[in-house]
From TrEMBL:
<feature type="domain" description="ABC3 transporter permease C-terminal">
    <location>
        <begin position="283"/>
        <end position="396"/>
    </location>
</feature>
<protein>
    <submittedName>
        <fullName>ABC transporter permease</fullName>
    </submittedName>
</protein>
<keyword id="KW-0472">Membrane</keyword>
<feature type="transmembrane region" description="Helical">
    <location>
        <begin position="277"/>
        <end position="300"/>
    </location>
</feature>
<feature type="transmembrane region" description="Helical">
    <location>
        <begin position="34"/>
        <end position="59"/>
    </location>
</feature>
<dbReference type="InterPro" id="IPR003838">
    <property type="entry name" value="ABC3_permease_C"/>
</dbReference>
<dbReference type="GO" id="GO:0005886">
    <property type="term" value="C:plasma membrane"/>
</dbReference>
<keyword id="KW-0812">Transmembrane</keyword>
<dbReference type="InterPro" id="IPR005891">
    <property type="entry name" value="DevC"/>
</dbReference>
<dbReference type="Pfam" id="PF02687">
    <property type="entry name" value="FtsX"/>
</dbReference>
<feature type="transmembrane region" description="Helical">
    <location>
        <begin position="332"/>
        <end position="356"/>
    </location>
</feature>
<feature type="transmembrane region" description="Helical">
    <location>
        <begin position="368"/>
        <end position="387"/>
    </location>
</feature>
<keyword id="KW-1003">Cell membrane</keyword>
<keyword id="KW-0813">Transport</keyword>
<keyword id="KW-1133">Transmembrane helix</keyword>
<dbReference type="InterPro" id="IPR051125">
    <property type="entry name" value="ABC-4/HrtB_transporter"/>
</dbReference>
């Protein structure tokens, strides 16, 4: 064939491989089979990327409220696994912690959840954080600027990113133009807003003073907050102070002291390995890989079967097994690379749609895309290795 009539992929692959790109020629010979194979690989990549995206959104939404906290260490009940199941702890532990060297301030935070029925009848779950407005347990600039308003009874700040609400009245709420919110037969005045965003269990957040919180949750006691946010003195070593606090509470055994990063990591690990939703996403990734392996194996296996006599002829005249392995792996890598691109583009678009509709922190990033690309190529290579088993067992004398 004239060199000028050969396609650019063929010329590029020939230069890269240093030989005729037999794998590419076999794939491109049947365009229908090639497009079907690429569709299968794209679907498998899309499936894995979506599952990873949902899993990443789960981990990201778990971290959101913790990242809003201004603390180096966190004191919680000993049985706390996630923020939602943080049991109340004795306030006296926070007072004891404040006396430990290196501790500057310990802020008590109350946690609760309320269902808010909107005028249209739909219900939104709101996580409520209550704290003393004279302290600064949250580092968001907008929250700190407005938290003095919480000193007024039944006044709250609302998360403007709460899922599926009309954000206009929340965004327009001001100290002199509050917006009324009915919760548990109480009229709360929304005097301002902030932005955190909902997760998989709640649609958004509400900030209140500890006094307003106790009015909303009359069964809760002021002597039993859920968290103690520990701020350290300048220059204090968090590891040293944490060790002192653990030693201080060693006999009591009813609280645990962890760094904020450790709390986030343990919460994310619990959500991923103990909660059904995390396990479902994990299984989804495995199923996506299995689907991809089966599809690519079927394509490569059929290709090997169709050309078995040609391979056997080459084998009879002395070509080694690694030559045939190279051809099949060449096909596998081409399918992996070309099939990944449509899957990535479609997944990126779906990420944007899901983030827009749900408010979940879901976005494509380079490490995730790179990991799935490597996984896709490895999946195709594995399929190719399985497909060549028949070729390795082929005896030229039995094929003619």
């Amino acid at each position: 064939m004239s060199r000028s009539l050969r396609s650019w992929p063929e010329l590029w692959l020939e230069r890269l491989l240093g030989r005729l790109p037999i794998g590419w020629l076999q794939l491109s010979h049947s365009r229908t089979r090639l497009y079907a194979a690429l569709g299968g690989v794209s679907f498998a990549s899309l499936l894995v990327l979506m599952q990873l995206g949902f899993h990443g959104a789960l981990l990201g939404s778990v971290a959101l409220p913790y990242r809003a906290m201004d603390a180096q260490l966190l004191i919680s009940a000993a049985d706390m696994n996630t923020l939602a199941d943080a049991s109340p702890l004795p306030r006296v532990r926070l007072l004891q912690a404040a006396a430990v060297p290196g501790v500057d301030q310990v802020s008590a935070v109350f946690l609760g959840r309320l269902d808010w029925r909107q005028p249209d009848g739909s219900v939104r779950a709101l996580d409520v954080l209550g704290f003393d407005p004279s302290e600064a347990p949250l580092h968001d600039v907008e929250i700190r600027r407005q938290q003095g308003l919480l000193n007024l009874v039944d006044t709250v700040l609302m998360d403007a990113r709460t899922r599926h609400i009309d954000a206009a009245p929340v965004l327009s709420a001001k100290p002199d133009a509050t917006w009324l919110l009915e919760l548990r037969a109480r009229s709360l005045k929304v005097a301002g807003h902030f932005a955190i965003g909902g997760g998989f269990s709640a649609d958004g957040y509400l900030l209140a003073s500890d006094q307003t919180f106790l009015r909303l949750f009359p069964n809760r006691s002021s002597g039993a907050p859920n968290l103690g946010l520990v701020q350290l003195q300048a220059g204090a070593d968090p590891a040293v102070v944490a060790a002192l606090l653990r030693e201080r509470f060693r006999d009591a055994g009813d609280v645990k002291v962890r760094s904020l990063d450790a709390v986030i990591a343990e919460d994310q690990r619990f959500q991923s390995t103990q909660r059904p939703i995390g396990l479902i996403f994990g299984f989804g990734i495995v199923i996506g890989l299995l689907v991809g392996v089966v599809i690519v194996y079927q394509v490569l296996s059929s290709d090997v079967a169709d050309h078995l006599k040609e391979y056997a002829t080459l084998k009879a005249i002395g070509y080694p097994q690694r030559f045939f392995l190279g051809i099949v792996f060449e096909e596998a890598v081409i399918l992996g690379l070309l099939g990944f691109v449509p899957g990535l583009l479609i997944a990126s678009g779906l990420y944007a749609v899901v983030a827009w509709k749900t408010g979940l922190p879901m976005a494509m990033n380079a490490p995730r895309a790179g990991a799935v690309l490597l996984g896709t190529v490895a999946m195709c290579a594995l399929s190719g290795a399985i497909a060549t088993r028949r070729l390795a067992r082929a005896n030229p004398a039995e094929l003619f």
